[in-house]
What does this fold into?
Amino acid sequence: MGFNTPVQVAEAVANAGKTKASLPFLQMLILGIFAGCYIAFGAELCTMVVTGTSAKLGLGMAKFMGGAVFSVGLMLVVIGGAELFTGNNLMTIGLSRGQFGVTGVVYNWVIVYIANFLGSVLLVYIMYKSGLWHTGGNAVGTTAVNIAAGKVNLSWAEAFYRGIGCNWLVCLAVWLAFAAKDVVGKIFGIFFPIMAFVASGFEHCVANMYFIPMGIVLKGDAAMADAVAKLGTKADALTWGGFAINNLVPVTLGNIVGGAVFVGLAYFMVYVNQMSKEK
It folds into this structure.
């Protein structure tokens, strides 16, 4: 066959989880920082591309184009090699199979989550200092602030359920990448689910580690005063506290449910009797 079957994918994902659970600290940290940077590259490109697009092509096309370019982030993670918290939610397959314990999962998730944040804010710093947000007479910066403000003004429930939808699709993108046997197949396997999650408006905790801090940093820049003023009271929640409480916590929890439960545990339950007995 030209691709791996779902049972073979389940085996491969479980075995990959076993490796992830025992990665040395420094390797895990660096690969986690890489993933934060890679997803942030997708987020900043998405911000650039959607700026002004809606007015010319319509909201739907703007969302589609933003999702299309954002997919480069997961391509870099999967093909380039990096540790991404949301993708690692699939470790529940190996955990359920008994290939490693809860300690290995917690160790990986905590270190990778922190490292993803470090990588994301590193790119925030680079993008801010690059001045590229001035593009189009500060139009890109305005888009960044508006995106961030929209995310921190979601209700807790909205953020949580959007997190579920997001990582359901992200982990399916990883699943399809495991199914492919060549790079082109992996690219196509990643592209469509990621495009779908971004175009749909779902919430990804690691992407938001770039989107929202970028908005917070720009909010404090004098050049963005008019854009911030137009947001009115919505700008009040655009703080580090608002980022953590209003968005990061509920989105992270939703991402865990969407990836670890709706993909990882669900596929384990489906294929547990068809997977090999060797662990």
Remarks:
- Residues 11 and 76 are 23 Å apart (CA to CA).
- The chain has one domain: 6-271.
- Residues 6-271 form a domain with the Glycerol uptake facilitator protein fold (CATH 1.20.1080.10).
